[in-house]
Amino acid sequence: MKAQADKVLKEAVARGDVPGVVAVATDRKGQTYEGGFGKRVLGDAAEMTPDTVGWIASMTKAVTGAAAMQQVERGKLGLDTPAKAVLPALGDVSVLEGFDSGGKPKMRKAKRDITLRHLLTHTAGFGYDIWNADLAKYQESEGVPGIISCQDKALTTPLLFDPGERWYYGINIDWAGKMVEAAAGKKLGQVLRDDLLGPLGMNDTAFHISDGMRKRMAKIHHRGPDGALTADPALEIPQEPEFEMGGGGLYSTAGDYLKFVRMMLNEGKADNGKAVMKPETVATMSKNAMGESRVTLLKTAAPPFSNDAEFFPGLDKQWGLSFMINNEEAPTGRSAGGLAWAGLANTYYWIDQKKGVGGVYITQILPFADVKSLPLFYAFESAVYGK
Questions:
Q1: Would you call 61 a catalytic residue per the annotation?
Q2: DSSP letters for 317-366
Q3: Fewest CB within a 10 Å sphere: which of 104, 220, 340, 358?
Q4: Structural contact between residues 77 and 181, judged by C-beta atoms closer than 8 angstroms
Q5: Which contacts (CB < 8 Å, 24+ apart) does range 138-147 have?
Q6: Which 3 state secondary structure label does DSSP give 37?
């Protein structure tokens, strides 16, 4: 397995498919593979080593989701009670029905209340502007900044449909992070540190980039229309944010995130055997939690940031409590019922509880679902399964 994984990653770097890549794999007992190849920044000397720090973007969602479920365990939050009881602002959200002739948004009251379950399964009705042109138009019309600004006003976008109707990927887990803060009475980063990151030994994972982390950071690269990659030294999540972005603000290393993957493989236990969540909570998180809804293609509305994106097109996919679930075996060897998701800069992970296997893969490339990086992730995962 090591020889095959090394081969696919090394060859991709040699071809110039990616500037650098780190990939790791685990079983329930511990790490089974670790590899780092290429450069942290194209043209620089620093190697892409396994301890390289990257922006993991929406891989943050699973960690925030787990923190929310810890609050559910403690009776501080309810999955199916109206979220407005904790965050009154969620009782005032309207549904966008289009725009009038002057370009102003037409709104109506939502038919039902938003719940934490809706937020964790992306069925509340929220979206992201990079996959929805109407949201981008609304933000421009109303002066609402993008979510990556980490300004509170960025959360004031409308719903695209009534809560519970269907799956649509959006800022839901940023709102779930706000619910965690309200329940715990602390900032999200502190809750994560106290309840998850600290107990799991994830010392290189944070919203705030420490000096030690910064020395090991890879920079994000943009792939142009001609396929060429250019480093962007300026792109960084605000380090003095109005709110800590539970949907996408964390920086981490592949090995650190693998500890979270392993916790999910081990029914809520950290590597030292101590429980951070109950086995029944992990089981609940790992099952479809949105009824008959299905995960669908993310159609880009902002090509510099994302290509059209869907994992394993044609496979039936649903959503647990902050994970995508493939209902059929994937071509890579991932079991039916596998958990997974990704980050915007082409970071990916999967958790196969049936076979007791998981992995994390980190590059730093935009747009999402990159034409070279996503296939390389699949090739790495396939190598882990010996496919």
A1: yes
A2: EEE-SSSEEESS--TTSPPTTEEEEEETTTEEEEEETTTTEEEEEE--EE
A3: 104
A4: no
A5: 138/96, 138/105, 141/99, 141/103, 141/104, 141/105, 142/105, 147/171, 147/174, 147/245, 147/247, 147/248
A6: strand
Indicate if 385 belongs to the active site.
no
Q: What is the separation of C-alpha 32 from the centre of its chain, rounded to a whole number of angstroms?
A: 23
Q: Return d(Cα 229, Cα 19) in angstroms, integer.
A: 8
Contact 334, 381 (CB under 8 A): yes
Does residue 322 carry a catalytic annotation? no
State pTM to two decimals: 0.98
Could you tell me how far CA 7 lies from the centroid of its own chain? 27
Helical packing angle, 373-384 and 2-15, nearest 10°: 170
Marked catalytic residue, from 138, 169, 251, 348: 169
Cβ neighbours around 103 below 10 Å, total: 9
Q: Are 328 and 315 in contact (CB under 8 A)?
A: yes
Would you write out the chain's pLDDT as a tens digit for each of its 387 residues? 999 999 999 999 999 999 999 999 999 999 999 999 999 999 999 999 999 999 999 999 999 999 999 999 999 999 999 999 999 999 999 999 999 999 999 999 999 999 999 999 999 999 999 999 999 999 999 999 999 999 999 999 999 999 999 999 999 999 999 999 999 999 999 999 999 999 999 999 999 999 999 999 999 999 999 999 999 988 999 999 999 999 999 999 999 999 999 999 999 999 999 999 999 999 999 999 999 999 999 999 999 999 999 999 999 999 999 999 999 999 999 999 999 999 999 999 999 999 999 999 999 999 999 999 999 999 999 999 999
Catalytic residue among 39, 61, 219, 259: 61
Question: Which residues neighbour 225 within 8 Å (Cβ) at sequence distance 6 or greater?
Answer: none
Return the domain boundaries, the chain. 2-60+188-384, 73-181
CA-based nearest residue to 30, from 172, 188, 159, 201: 201
Level-2 CATH architecture, domain 2-60+188-384? 3-Layer(aba) Sandwich (3.40)
